[in-house]
């Protein structure tokens, strides 16, 4: 895996053990009679960014929700060698930070209040780290979160997840609905987060993936159809087109939906 600038060689959670940080085997999810995940196997290494890619509706969000226990599933989810498959979500999220697709920011509360809400009882809150990574969150502490730009809200959502020490950070489509010019800001935020903790990133914006991801896992119709180095995949225009339905476009312009976001 190629370390990205600003990416720590090993995450705080890494214990130098061989083997992946997260291992998912044979994950199946049925929703309302539809077989959404059909035996997903994937691994997340103990540092860097692992991107989950795929066309719309192939099961990316469902896969990360299944890891977190947010949807009923069968299979096996192992974190740092510990089987967490049967653990409840509230327990899993004590060591796995989660930034959902809709960011989960409380618009009526200030930036400071949103951060305070994320504080975990009994563990130190890392305000210094969060403010060092995202100085804007300190500057805008008293601003209602609903008045932040999309990119700033994403920083707040990621900052909130970083307030507590986690073994893994799951970030679901952080650029969804954001203007292309904000994508670079979000990429910076993900790179900064990955310097602290390994990241599992669902993303459709391939320019961002190219910039931040070390590994790529591609889903199609509820199954993993490719795993490998992200850069290698994205350099291979034909394979990228075959798996994601897009051709290579100028950096910053492409997404797996084939349009600017
Ligand atoms: N609560 C639900 N009820 C019914 N169908 C659902 C539900 N959640 C997901 N699905 C279906 O499961 C499939 C996978 O959805 P999922 O959101 O995981 O895909 P995705 O790859 O993340 O898509 P996108 O890139 O559009 O966000 C889709 O066909 C979706 O319609």
TrEMBL record:
Residues 22-246 form the ABC transporter domain. The keyword ATP-binding applies. One of its GO terms (molecular function) is branched-chain amino acid transmembrane transporter activity. The lineage of its organism: Bacteria, Bacillati, Actinomycetota, Actinomycetes, Streptosporangiales. Signal peptide: none annotated. PROSITE patterns: ABC_TRANSPORTER_1, ABC_TRANSPORTER_2. This is High-affinity branched-chain amino acid transport ATP-binding protein LivF. Belongs to the ABC transporter superfamily. CDD domains: ABC_TM1139_LivF_branched (cd03224). InterPro entries: AAA+_ATPase, ABC_transporter-like_ATP-bd, ABC_transporter-like_CS, BCAA_Transport_ATP-bd_LivF, P-loop_NTPase. Keywords: Amino-acid transport, ATP-binding, Nucleotide-binding, Transport. Pfam families: ABC_tran. Coiled coil: none annotated. GO terms for biological process: L-amino acid transport.
């Amino acid at each position: 895996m190629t370390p990205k600038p600003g990416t720590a060689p090993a995450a705080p959670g890494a214990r130098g053990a061989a083997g992946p940080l997260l291992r998912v085997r044979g994950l199946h999810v049925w929703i309302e009679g539809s077989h959404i995940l059909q035996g997903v196997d994937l691994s997340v290494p103990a540092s860097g960014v692992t991107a989950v890619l795929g066309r719309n509706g192939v099961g990316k969000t469902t896969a990360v929700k299944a890891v977190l226990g947010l949807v009923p599933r069968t299979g096996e989810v192992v974190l740092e060698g510990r089987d967490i498959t049967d653990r409840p979500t509230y327990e899993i999220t004590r060591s796995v930070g989660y930034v959902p697709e809709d960011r989960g920011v409380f618009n009526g509360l200030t930036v400071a209040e949103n951060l305070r809400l994320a504080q975990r009882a009994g563990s130190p809150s890392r305000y210094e780290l969060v403010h060092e990574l995202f100085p804007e969150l300190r500057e805008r502490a008293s601003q209602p979160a609903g008045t932040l730009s999309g990119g700033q809200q994403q920083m707040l959502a990621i900052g909130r997840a970083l307030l507590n020490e986690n073994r893994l950070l799951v970030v679901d489509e952080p650029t969804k609905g954001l203007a292309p010019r904000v994508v670079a800001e979000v990429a910076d935020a993900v790179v900064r987060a990955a310097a602290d903790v390994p990241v599992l990133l669902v993303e459709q914006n391939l320019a961002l993936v190219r910039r931040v991801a070390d590994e790529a896992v591609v889903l199609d119709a509820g199954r993993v159809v490719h795993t490998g180095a992200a850069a290698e995949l994205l350099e291979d225009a034909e394979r990228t087109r075959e798996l994601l339905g897009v051709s290579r476009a100028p950096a910053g312009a492409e997404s797996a939906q084939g349009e600017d976001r």
